[in-house]
C-alpha cells in the first residue's frame, strides 16, 4: 500500500489498496458475519459482492536498506534505529499518525498518553503470553488415507476480533508461530468492507482489472481507529 495523496488542507490521506495481489499485505475476502472466518476471493474471476472485505496486514515502519519498500513511504528522511538494530523510517501506521500529528488532528498529549499506557504494561499483559492465548493441539490419533497410515492432529489458532463502535471497521489479531524463529507472535489485521473503497467504476457486481487499485480515505473522523 502507498499514499496516493496527503491533503493538508482537507486533512485527508488517500491510500491506494491493491485489489488483485492476493499474496501482498492486503487480500480481498468474503464472510457472512463480522466475526466469521474469511475466505479469500479470486477477484479476477469472482465478482465483488456486499460480503467482500479488505484484510490489511498493516505495517509500522520500513527498513531503509529495502529499496523497493522504501519507495512506498512518503517520509524517507525521518530515520531511527529499530529494536533489531536496523535503520528504519516510518511507513503505513506510523506514517499516517505522523501526518495527522503535523496537521494538529492528533495532539502530543494523546501520543504521550498512549506511550505511558504501553510503558506501564507488564509481560503478563501481552497477547502473546501463552497464559492468555495459546495455540492448542489435539492428541494425535491414527488415521489412514488411501492405504497410508498417518498420525492426525488438529491445531487451533486463537483469533481476537474487535469492532470499533458504529464503524464498519474491525481489527483482527491472530496468534501464529513465528516464521523464522521459535515462539509465537500476534499478527494484526485491519479489516473493512469494500464499500469503504472509492473507485472510478463501482466494484459491486464486477471483477477486478489487472493490477487495479481502489482508494481508502483516512480522515479526522476515523484516524482515532488507527
Concise overview:
The chain is mainly β and 226 residues long. The protein has helices spanning 67-70, 93-102, 108-119; strands at residues 2-7, 12-18, 26-30, 39-40, 52-56, 61-63, 79-81, 87-90, 136-137, 141-145, 148-152, 155-156, 159-163, 170-177, 184-193, 213-218. It has one domain (2-225).
Key terms:
globular; 226 residues; 3 helices; 16 strands; 3-stranded antiparallel β-sheet; mainly beta; single chain; 6-stranded antiparallel β-sheet
Describe this structure in words.
With 226 residues, the chain is mainly β. It has one domain. The chain has helices at residues 67-70, 93-102, 108-119; strands spanning 2-7, 12-18, 26-30, 39-40, 52-56, 61-63, 79-81, 87-90, 136-137, 141-145, 148-152, 155-156, 159-163, 170-177, 184-193, 213-218. The protein has a 6-stranded antiparallel sheet with strand order 4-3-5-15-14-13, with no helix packed on it. Strands 1-2-16 form a 3-stranded antiparallel sheet, with no helix packed on it. The protein has a 3-stranded antiparallel sheet with strand order 6-8-7. The longest helix has 12 residues, at 108-119. The model has no long low-confidence stretch (mean pLDDT 92).
